C-alpha cells in the first residue's frame, strides 16, 4: 500500500475505554483517523453510511473500521438501552464492492469488540477461528461476464471478539484485552502480515482464557477474503 494516508480508519467507541490507544495506533500506522464516541444505533448507521460514501476512498489504498459496543450475539446496540440492534452483517454489506465501488479491490479491515448483553450467547470454547472463502473461491466467483472481475466480497478482513457485558462492570479501567493486544501487536516496529499478527493475538487471548472464569473470557472469530498478503507497520 502506497497512498498517504493509507486510508480512513473509522473508530466508533460506544463504551469509551479504548479510543485513545486505538487512535494513536492507527495514526502511527499511517491512517487518517476519524473517531466517534457514545453513539446510538441510529447514529452508528448514519456514520457508517456517510463514511462508506466518502470520495476519499478513491485515492486511498485501504479502509479500517474499529467498533466497540454492547450488543447481542449478532448485532450492536450502541448506547441504546432498548433496541433490536444493528446486525453486524449489515455493517460489512455497506462496504462491499457493489455498494462501495471506491473500495473494490482494496483491503477492508474490521476489528469489532462486542460486549454481549444477553446471557447464554457466548460459545463454549476458548477461541474459534473461521476462515473465509479461499482466494480461489473468490476469484472463481469473480470470473463472470461484465466489466468488474473482482468479487464484491473480496478483500475483507473481519475480526470479531465477543465478551460478556459484565466485564464492563469491573473496578479497573475495563479496557478490552482483545483491543489492547491488537494495539500492542500493531505497534511493534516489524513487518508482520495481518494474518500472522492475528494468530499471535489469538494465542494471547487463549492464554488469558485458560486462567480466568467463563465470565471473564474473550471469544475471537476471524473471517477473511484477502487475496494478497497484507502488512501493516508503524511509519
TrEMBL record:
Keywords: Apoptosis
Endoplasmic reticulum as UniProt keyword: no
Coiled coil: none
Gene Ontology molecular functions: cysteine-type endopeptidase activity
GO terms classed as biological process: apoptotic process; proteolysis; regulation of programmed cell death
Domain Caspase family p20: residue ranges: 18-113
Record-level GO cellular component terms: cytoplasm
Pfam families linked: Peptidase_C14 (PF00656)
Sequence similarity: Belongs to the peptidase C14A family.
Protein name: CASP8 and FADD-like apoptosis regulator isoform X4
Organism: Camelus ferus
Gene: CFLAR
Amino acid at each position: 500500500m502506497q497512498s498517504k494516508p493509507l486510508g480512513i480508519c473509522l473508530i466508533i467507541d460506544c463504551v469509551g475505554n479504548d479510543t485513545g490507544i486505538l487512535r494513536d495506533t492507527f495514526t502511527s500506522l499511517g491512517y487518517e483517523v476519524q473517531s466517534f464516541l457514545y453513539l446510538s444505533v441510529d447514529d452508528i448507521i448514519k456514520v457508517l453510511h456517510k463514511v462508506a460514501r466518502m470520495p476519499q476512498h478513491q485515492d486511498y489504498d485501504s479502509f479500517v473500521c474499529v467498533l466497540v459496543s454492547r450488543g447481542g450475539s449478532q448485532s450492536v446496540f450502541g448506547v441504546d438501552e432498548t433496541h433490536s440492534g444493528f446486525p453486524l452483517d449489515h455493517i460489512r454489506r455497506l462496504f462491499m464492492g457493489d455498494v462501495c465501488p471506491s473500495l473494490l479491490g482494496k483491503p477492508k479491515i474490521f476489528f469489532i469488540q462486542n460486549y454481549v448483553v444477553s446471557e447464554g450467547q457466548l460459545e463454549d470454547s476458548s477461541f474459534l477461528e473461521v476462515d473465509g472463502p479461499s482466494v480461489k473461491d473468490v476469484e472463481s466467483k469473480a470470473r463472470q461476464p461484465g466489466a468488474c472481475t473482482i468479487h464484491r466480497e473480496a478483500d475483507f478482513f473481519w475480526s470479531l471478539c465477543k465478551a460478556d457485558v459484565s466485564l464492563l462492570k469491573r473496578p479497573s479501567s475495563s479496557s478490552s484485552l482483545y483491543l489492547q493486544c491488537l494495539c500492542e501487536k500493531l505497534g511493534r516496529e516489524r513487518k508482520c502480515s495481518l494474518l500472522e499478527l492475528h494468530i499471535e493475538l489469538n494465542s494471547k487471548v487463549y492464554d488469558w482464557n485458560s486462567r480466568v472464569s467463563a465470565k471473564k473470557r474473550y471469544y475471537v472469530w476471524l473471517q477473511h477474503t484477502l487475496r494478497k498478503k497484507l502488512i501493516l507497520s508503524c511509519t
